[in-house]
Amino acid sequence: MQFQKKIVAVISWGLVAGWMALIFFLSAQQGEQSANLSGGITELVHQIVEQVAPDAEFKMDEISFFVRKNAHFFAYMLLAILTLNAVRRSGGHGWLSMGVAFVISLLYAISDEVHQLFVPGRSGQVSDVLLDSAGALAGIALYALISYLLNGKRKDKNKKRAN
Question: Are 75 and 133 spatial neighbours (Cβ–Cβ below 8 Å)?
């Protein structure tokens, strides 16, 4: 059983490293490549909005801004979820494990923005680090909420079995 727990912890950290690598890869794209990628996503969002609310008037640059900023938020939300899971699978508990997951996510967000300073057509922004941090906090809160709900259900099942 102990061996299985170690394997799960290693896989969990592998997922963290893989997600960080994807973030790094996307951040390494030059400005034009990045704009083309987000432009395609923006066009898809625009088409969906037109179908759902045909009378709504949106500017493409507003949708593009929305898409790009949400990408930051959700990328770091998932990074924090994966990191908190890995920390917990490695034996971390409680608030300390949440703090460790947040600090890892924050430091990676900072390093990502510094990395972008060296990519042609890109820039590092403090506002993106703040947005990434908000995403990380949301991910940690979501993980904690789901864990709380699942643990409550497990405790209820164990109480019923004991009776």
Answer: no
Number of domains in the chain: 1
Domain extent, residue 72, equals: 2-162
Residue whose token pair is 């890869």: 25
Measured distance CA(102)–CA(59) in Å, rounded: 35
Q: At what angle do helices 2-27 and 94-116 cross, to 10 degrees?
A: 30
Q: What is the CA radius of gyration of the chain?
A: 19
pLDDT tens figures, 25-66: 988 887 565 555 555 566 666 666 677 777 767 666 666 677
Do 135 and 74 contact (CB within 8 A), yes or no? yes
Residue 109 CB partners (closer than 8 Å, separation 6+): 76, 128, 129, 132, 133, 136
pLDDT tens, residue by residue, 121-159: 888 899 999 999 999 999 999 999 999 999 876 666 666
